[in-house]
Amino acid sequence: MYRQASGEWDLRRYSSEGKRGYVPIDGFGHPPELPMALRRDAMPEIPELSEIDVVRHYISLSQMNFGVDNGFYPLGSCTMKYNPKICELLAMNYSASSHHPLDPQWSVKGNIEIMGRLSELLAVISGMDYVTLQPAAGAQGEFLGAKMISAYHKDRGEARDEMIVPDTAHGTNPASAAMAGYRIVEVPSGVDGQIDTEALEACISDRTAGLMLTNPNTLGIFEAKIGEISELVHGAGGLLYYDGANLNALLGRVRPGDMGFDIVHFNLHKTFSTPHGGGGPGAGAIGVKSYLKGYLPSPMVASEGESYVFRHDLSPKIQKIRAYHGNFAIILRAYAYLVSLGYGIRDVSELSVLNANYLLHRLKEHFDVPFLASTPLRKHEFVISCERIRKDTGVTALDFARRLLDFGHHAPTVYFPLIVKEALMIEPTETESRSTLDSFVDAMIKVKEECYRDPDLVKNAPYSTSRRKIDVVKAVREPKLSWMMEGKG
Ligand SMILES: *Cc1c(COP(=O)(O)O)cnc(C)c1O
């Protein structure tokens, strides 16, 4: 059975006065003298350690974590695929990563070209005309998209203040639209787990600015009526926004632009390979159709003859959303990922959908899967409900998910989408082998048996991790974000 490191290197124990690691010596230069007014009166209260203490501290911290490099991580919607190490190596390449964003353009031509070429590839993949790499996260891309929709309608002299969002949407969709000033109108899903088009029609009016949709939706079901949905929204003068945080099911096969979407955001850190989690860093590039080009923030990367340049629009309709040009290290990884795969991106979509349906097929005998009768197959992910297990045994989806850690698997996403009770959302991704998927199925079946045989065993899990069951409410209400000496704060 999988075991994680049991504790951090105790800093207090190894700290003693005057202990030092690296000390600058003559010849390497001295740090500039700070003005007296800016200096501390007393030493900061941090441990005093040697280099080896610090190394051991950070290495043991890293071993307390669960990551995709040490186990299966089927976190639905988040696409925790294995990140090929070649992308990491390229991202560390000194000549690409050592520039300052204010370096003159002539000195960073290669970097600008990488940005230009990645934008072009993303435009082809999504069926859009122009792409900006500026947003730092999916949610920031959504916010920018919502602002663009708002500016677009304003330019037409129209006061449209409502954004339609389905009840299966990722929480960031209504949050971003609300931040951009919209009133959110929720459209319900029908019995087939897809948008109910009659209900959609009832939501649409001359106040409709647009619809935000992800397709396949968060149940892993493809919205087959997307053509009709697009006609309804566009017919009423609204725009269609595609939440493309996760393009795994579509890569090289289906394009949001061809489905009628006007704006798309991409989570480069999910689909296009960057280790993510713990809040970043990310990249939430967005693509638009040509009629929205004027709403992209400046500067844009444009091709000029053989090379690429930043083109600054002096009177942009939308201001910059992030300092400089986006998270370049992630842009570099995404470009390396796409170039290393080439047409192989079609295998990504094929294998991610195959893996999800293989898991679904093996698990559906043992678990309740909503909407299976009307839609027997899924795209890259699927959602099961632990509601019956909770009613029978008192074990919740969260307890169930935690217990999986003792079997060496990260927990799936829980309680999302909101329309499924006690939801476990499972996304295996394309990078997992059949034997890994089988061992996950074995663990799921075993935990279910435990729920009925010894529910407390599951409720008190996990047992094998560096930290036992965590009080998540306390962690949110009283976060400790910095280290403190004993007895302080
Ligand atoms: C992850 C995700 C987002 C938000 O992306 P962030 O980069 O975390 O802001 C939006 N929509 C869906 C469907 C997602 O999975």
Descriptive account of the structure:
With 489 residues, the protein is an alpha/beta fold. The chain folds into 3 domains: 53 residues, no CATH class; 258 residues, 3-Layer(aba) Sandwich (Aspartate Aminotransferase, domain 2), CATH 3.40.640; 132 residues, Aspartate Aminotransferase, domain 1. Helix content is 35%, strand content 11%. The protein has 17 helices and 12 strands. The strands form 3 sheets. Strands 1-7-6-5-4-2-3 form a 7-stranded mixed β-sheet, with helices on both faces. Strand 2, helix 7 and strand 3 form a beta-alpha-beta unit. Pyridoxal-5'-phosphate (PLP) binds next to helix 6.
Question: Which short descriptors sum up this protein?
Answer:
single chain; 489 residues; alpha/beta; Aspartate Aminotransferase, domain 2; Aspartate Aminotransferase, domain 1; 3 domains; 7-stranded mixed beta sheet; 3-stranded antiparallel beta sheet; 12 strands; 35% helix; binds pyridoxal-5'-phosphate
Question: In terms of topology, how is this protein built?
Answer:
Layout: H1 11-14, H2 51-64, H3 85-91, H4 94-97, H5 109-126, E1 130-132, H6 138-155, E2 162-166, H7 172-179, E3 183-187, H8 197-203, E4 208-213, H9 226-235, E5 239-244, H10 256-259, E6 263-266, E7 286-288, E8 300-304, E9 307-311, H11 328-341, H12 345-363, E10 382-385, H13 387-393, H14 397-403, E11 413-414, E12 423-426, H15 434-453, H16 455-459, H17 472-477
Parallel strand pairs: 2-3, 2-4, 4-5, 5-6
Antiparallel strand pairs: 1-7, 6-7, 8-9, 10-12, 11-12
The structure holds pyridoxal-5'-phosphate.
